[in-house]
């Protein structure tokens, strides 16, 4: 539903930046185009290769947009980081 005071063609998403939303839309488009292929798996792996702060922004966006599939995919990366490395490495990576 569009409120009367929303005269422009935009939908405000206060918890999601335009940069993050662009990445989310890129993810959605690829998943519509490629379905379940090896190319999609490669895209997903590359999609997750972002700085930790950007990954956190994407997790917040997926949660805010209630996209369970994207959220599940995004939460794999922090889990693997925590399992594979000690806390010093995680702190160092988060300060890049």
From TrEMBL:
The protein's UniProt keywords, in alphabetical order, are:
Ubl conjugation pathway
* GO process annotations (BP): jasmonic acid mediated signaling pathway; protein ubiquitination; ubiquitin-dependent protein catabolic process
**Could you confirm whether the keyword Mitochondrion appears in this record?**
no
Domain SKP1 component POZ: start-end pairs: 1-32
Q: What is this protein called?
A: SKP1-like protein 6
Organism superkingdom: Eukaryota
What pathway is this protein a component of?
Protein modification; protein ubiquitination
Q: What broad taxonomic lineage does this protein's source fall under?
A: Eukaryota, Viridiplantae, Streptophyta, Embryophyta, Tracheophyta
Family, per entry: Belongs to the SKP1 family.
